[in-house]
Structures are given as structure tokens and as C-alpha cells.
## 1
Amino acid sequence: MPKHIAKSDLPQKPCLHCRRPFTWRKKWERVWDEVKYCSERCRREAKQTPRG
């Protein structure tokens, strides 16, 4: 099995706030199913003004 995985092969999902796709990161390895936002900024803004 290769040690490196191409970035294009990493899982993606859309941000719940800005709707842009974001890619898996190593720091999210254990909590990937719980990650909802692409950034701290989107997380903060979603709390202030929830989209319907």
C-alpha cells in the first residue's frame, strides 16, 4: 500500500455555511464525521446567522 495519497483522492464534503467543498485534513482524522464547516470563520458566522 502506498504511503502517500494524492490530494485529489481525499474525501470531500460541502461546508454547511458557505456551501463550498472542503477536503479532509490530517487534524480531522478522528473527527471527520463531526466536521461541518470548512473554517473557524464559517463556524462562527453560522452561529450568528443560521441559514434556512
## 2
Amino acid sequence: MQLRFNYRAYPTAAQRHALARAFGCARVVFNDGLRARQDAHEAGLPYISDGDLSKKVITHAKASPDRAWLGEVSAVVLQQALADLNTAYRNFFASITGRRKGPKVAPPRFKSKKDNRQTIRFTKNSRFSLTTGGKLRLPKIGEVPVRWSRDLPSEPSSVTVIKDAIGQYFVSFVVEATDKLLPDVASEVGIDLGLTHFAVLSDGRKISNPRILRRAAKKLRKAQKALGRTRKGSANRAKARVKVARAHARVADTRRDWAHKLSTTLISENQAVYVENLAVSALARTKLAKSVHDAGWSQFVGMLEYKAARYGRYFAKIDRWFPSSKLCSACGMIAEKMPLDVRSWICACGATHDRDVNAAINILAAGRADRLNDCGGGVRPPLAVAQADEAGSLRGAA
């Protein structure tokens, strides 16, 4: 499977200047291509093909005085910027025609030089390489120092250079990673995600919600107030903006690190992991939006999914409409109502349930049932011949 490996890069002043030029050229090519297709559409002309667009905004543009400086950067960077535009158009067309599942995709938009995040991509055609001294050699940029926190598992097929809102530089390699199968274990787990507790497991364990954004709210508020008091366009405003961006980046890094550790633990301890398919985008539009975003459920579930595929575990999502909270895990009866303020309840069969633990147990049972059916198990019991002494009714009887 293909994975991304990210590392921190420390370009020199001259290399930062060259990267800024590459970021700008890639942005200009993207915007020129988007403008050309929009003008053609408004004029009623046919859709410009990828090859013709490349000739127009790259090959012919380099020969014109207005765009001659495009030749100062690697041609692969420009081609990849145009490839991103073509991919965005294909996704948009597939979305409006129904071939692409999920939320609707908006048409491509123009990129701004004021965007806090800038990226360029080099493929194998650009002949980037790793030096024996541990540096990354990029065409027309030079040998960029990289802090190697771990070894690459294989030869990278592409590298993306990223500049974030703080001004830090990262290099992201796409590599083909071999699966690292873990030894089989007998345990399986169902996970009920929530806000009071981030995760409640079917074995009764409750994992507290770290509330990383809430804990950093005081520092964020202070930094944002300082930013609001500065004058637009001043040097102090630029410094204050970086402080706000650094505070948000620290929150995101902490949340990502915490999710990585928890997902790795759950995958290594269990042979199968089942979670509920939550509608996070809908929950993020409620009054709990801040808490939902702070929890980072989608990021955590995504980590569980790819780590399960890499390490030979089974992962599945349970339908969000499955009544996991209202279903009694002992007798199977479904309660009529289950308001959110009810945290424990007693079933008619006499079983006492913790709401979240009961939901996790039901998620585990539903996941096992779906897995059995996927593996060839019977969805319903087989037909049997009725016995002669069974009660019945004659045809036509009332």
C-alpha cells in the first residue's frame, strides 16, 4: 500500500527564495489554466484538453515576455500544478454526473499568494534524489537539509515540499510500504465514540476526551486578541499572525500525536475493530460544533482504517442508523426513547446498562454479524420442512 512519510526540512536562505519562486510559478500556471478554461466555457467553446492547455499556459507562455520567468523553475513543478487542476476538474465532473459518491465537489477555485499553505510536487521525472549526506537534492533548488526521524521503507515515487502558516518547511514522500502483519490475537472490540468520553470500548474501558483545543483556549484567545490590536500591514501584525498560527499548529500536532498512539494501541491489541459511521459533517453544524471538531473523530477513524489494512487486522463501520444505544445487549429489545441525558437505563428484562458501554457491545455484535455474512455466513436461517404435527390453518379459513 502507498503511504506518506513526512519530515521536517531546513532550507537555507537562498533555497527558501528559490522555493518561494517555485510556489509562485506553480500558482500562476494553475490560475492561468483555470482562467483559460473558464473563458472558453463563457465563450461557448469546447472544453480545452489537458495537452492543449499545457501547451498554452506552459510551453507558449515561456516564450512570451510576460511569462518568461516560468523557465526559472523545474518544468515538472509546472506540469504537476496543471495536473492538480485537471484532477480537480475530473472530480467536479464526476460529482455532478453522479459517478463520484459522497458530498458534492465544487469547481476549482483560483489560488491566492496570500494562502498560508504553499506546496509544490516533484515526481521521478524531475530526478530528485537523496544524497549520501542525508540531504534532498531538488532540481533548480539544491540540496535541502532534512531531519530524518525514521528511514524510508522504499524508494519514493514523488516528494511534495510544503510551507505551512508558521513558515516551517516539510517534505512528504510517497512510498510503497509493505504490510507489517501482526500476530493474530483473539480479542475484538467495538468502539462507541462520544464527547464526554472520547471512546468507550465494548470491554468496559472508557478513554477520556483530551479536549486539546479547550485546554489551549486561553493561550489562543490571548494570541488572537494581540493580533486584533495590531495595525493591518504592519510588521507587528505579521509577527502576531505567526504566533496565532503556531498556537493552532501546536493543537493540531498534539491531537494528531494522541490519535496515532491510541489507534496504534487498539489495532495491536485487537484482531477486529468496529466503529459507528458517524455523520461528523452534520454534527459539526450543531451547537456542539466546537467540541466535535476538537474531538477529531474522522482523523482517528481514518487512522484505524489504514493501520488495520497495513497490519492485517479487520476494520468495519457500522451503519449510523443502527440503534446501538436503545438496543438491549442482553435480550435484544429496543427501547422506544433514549434521550441524551439518560446515561444508564434498566431494560424490561432486568438488565442494567451503562448507555455507552451497551452501545459499544452492540456495535461489536453488529460488526461480527456483518463480518460473518461477508465471509459467507447465512443472512437468514435456511428453510425447513414443516412437521406433520405443527399447528396450521387450512387454505381459505378465516
## 3
Amino acid sequence: MTAEEYVEAVLAIVERIPWGRVTTYGAIADALFDEYGGGPRQVGSVMARHGGPVPWWRVVRADGTLPPSHGEEAREAYLEEATPLRPGGAVDLRRALWLP
């Protein structure tokens, strides 16, 4: 496995997340682990460096939140896509989680 292959595998999963749904960094890492290894932090690193062209707002932390720097732009996308949110603004993972 090369670093480029891992990046492509992560981004391919992100591109498959349906409109109005989300997945977690950990779920992506779990889906790729047998073939590539790695964990949620590696997925986060890929998203930070290469995630601009894909729907990055559909990848959230295990508690349904994004890093604060992404909050407002992501919230606009969630509202546009009718992504289920909790009263505090985080994604409602019980209703919105998509597993790769």
C-alpha cells in the first residue's frame, strides 16, 4: 500500500456518502483497515490535506461534531441537505449515520 492509494481509498468512500447522511473518521478507518491499516487520525489527516474536492462535511467525529473551524460552512451544507441535527448543532448520528 502506498500513501497515494490510501488517500484515494479514503476519498472514494467520502464520495459515496449519500446526500443528507454522514459517516465518522473511525468508520472509514474500519472499512479500510484490513487492506490498508490506519485509524481515525490517519483518515483525518487525509481529509485535512486532500478533502477539499469531496463532501468533507459528511465526515464527522464519533460524537457527530466537526472541528470548530469547519462549523459554519458545514452547518449550511447540513441544512441544505436536510441532515438530521441535534439541538446543540451536532449531527444526529442515530438518524444520519451511513456505514461504508
## 4
Amino acid sequence: MENKKKVVVIGQGYVGLPVAMRAVQVGYKVVGLEVDKRRVEGLLLGESYVEDISSKELLAALESGNYQASLDYEDATDFDIAVITVPTPLRESVPDLSYIEDSARSLAEYVRVGSTVVLESTTYPGTTEELLVPLLEAGSGLRAGTDFYVGYSPERIDPGNKTWGFVETPKVVSGLGEESLHRVRAFYDSIVDSTVPVSSPKEAELAKLLENTFRHVNIALVNEMAVFANQLGVNIWESIEAASSKPFGFMKFTPGPGVGGHCLPVDPSYLSWQVRRKLGQNFRFVELANDINDHMPDYVLQRLMMGLNKRRLALGGSTVVLAGLAYKKNSSDIRESPALRLIELLQEAGAEVKAVDNHVEAYRWPAGVERVTATEATFSSSHATILITDHDDVDYELVVRAAPLILDTRNRLAGPNVEVL
């Protein structure tokens, strides 16, 4: 690549680190800015904490001299392209955009004529134009769309997906005006296989929320159906497989203990919040889906209590092992995991909670939960095991053989001691 353009990626987590590594691979000089000192120290040692990026890949990037992890925004000096991939959580059901705001203010003084800034963080329609742009203009003294360029390109990272990785997944791109779109698209065309341009950042922002709201609503549908199917004595899992045989007009979704990660528990609420704030109306589908999915841990607890009662056992005083804490299979990501709410419910009921999950780092481990390994003694000495996340590194034959009672929320196990959600 001529003159090795400088790319700054703000946030080196599940979204930002893959962007940074791919940019290094195609020839950019990359600075990965991160506020977490522990993460930066690990990155500089070549230790990756993101499943989709191996430590070997990270070490290669460091050894090339084209990747630098940093806490200091001064390392953004003279950047050509900046990509903002910071978290956008909910705080008491209200969008928290403070990470975007802090990033924009810190980056603004390094914006120069010809710079391009792209927001990837999931947010409500209007954020790029109404929040990001004014902050960049105020801090730089320059005009967006004329002196520098701004766009929005929603992240589509699916951790652990071996078929549709960052490079293979089409990237929606947008810009503040024609020239911004041209520059944003040119950057992503250089690092992914294909791009999908839309007319403005608002359409791109809504596209991301539409994708996740679609999943959220359909998961809520099968979750509620699973509750009723169990009460009716129907095997919901068999019905789903049968329906999946239809080659058109049906898309398979499966029930579970709730939804987790950043996307499903959070993103639809951004859209619902904006609709209520701007239009004074309720987004009823989102609010209904939130209600159903948020209460799935309560249903899991109810089913566990019923299983224990059949064995003349009380939940209070019982030892319960959770198999898997992460929100997604073969991932370490525990953000908004339904396991966290279930732990609260179990502890409130007086149960002793233990958990098996080799993927979740020690500093993310939930308080009051004993970390145990997947041994025969672990499961046989418990009163019940709940399969929350069906990681592939667990010997499930051992689990079925050893555990006296298993509540399987993923339809992974079979046996006389197994009850399926």
C-alpha cells in the first residue's frame, strides 16, 4: 500500500481488534487505542483475549512493526482513518453513549484536513450526525463533510463463526455526503470482501438495529412457545426441526435461557428508546420481546425447582452447577449473559452455585460463584446441573453419567436424568 496510511482503531475488544488486525494484514499502519490498561499490557505481550484473533496473529502484527496498542490519544497524531468501536451499553434502560462522547472529544484535536472518522458502535438513528459530528467539529475547528469526512458502518462481528468472519461478511457503509461515502467505502473495500452502501448514516444505523431486533423478536417467539409447549406436553425442539424442513418461508430460531451479549439485550432497546423519545410512541414488538426474553432465567429457575421437587429436594440448600456462563457457545463473552441473572435468582433462593466455563477469564468471573472443573466429582456431588452454554470443550457423556439431575436449555443432552427446556 502506497505511503502506508495510518489507521486508528478506538476500542480493542471483540469488534475493534479484528478490524485492527485485518487493517495490518492489508498494509495499513495501525494504532489500537484502548482505555483498559490491563488489555493494552496483554496486547503488547501478544496475548489475545478475543476468540477470533489468535495470539499468533497478534504477535505477527506486533513483529511487523505496523501495530501498536496504546492508552494515549497522542498516538493518533496524523491519522488518516479512525474507526470508533467502543461499547454502547444501557444504563437503567437508557442508552449510554458516554464512550462515544469521550472518544470523539479525545480524537477531535487530532482530526486534520482530509481525515476520515467512522463510527461502528451500535446506536440509534441520528447518533453519527447529531452527536459525533458536532463533537468532532467543536474539538477540531473543522467542518465535517468539507474539511474532514465522517461515516457510519455497523459492526457485524459474529464471534466464533468460521464461515462468516469479518472479511467474508458484507459491510454496510455510509457517509456524510458523497465524498465521505466514497472514502469510507474505499477503506472497507480494502479490508473486506464486499460493501453495501446506503444513502446516509441514519439508514446504516437503523439497518443494524433492524438486524438485531429481527433476531430478538423471533427468539422471544420461540422462547414463549417453548414455555407453552412444555405445559402442553409437546416437544418444541422436535417441532422446530420439523418446521425447518420447509425450504421457504421459515427461518430456524431456537429457545434458550435468555439472550446475552451486547446485541440482543441492548440494541433493540436503543430503537425503542429513540421511537419513544422522538415520536412519543411505544415500539410494542421490542417491549414484548424484552419482557419475554428477560424473564427466561425466571422460567429456568421454575423448571429447576420442579425437577428438584420431583426428587423431594428443595432449591434452598441445594448445590447447583452451571455448565457454561458465556452468552454464546465457544465464546468468553459474558456481557449480559442470562447466566448472570440466573445466578442472582439461585443465590436469592439459597442455593450454592458453582460453574464450569474454561472460556471466561478470571477477572470476569461472577462474585460468589465457585469456579470448578468438568469432572465426574463436580457433577456427581451436586444436586442439579443446568446446561446454559454448550461449549464444545466439555465431555457431555461424563455430565450425563455423573449428574443426578440436568436441566438442558440447549437441547444438547439425552438421558433419563435430563430434562430439556
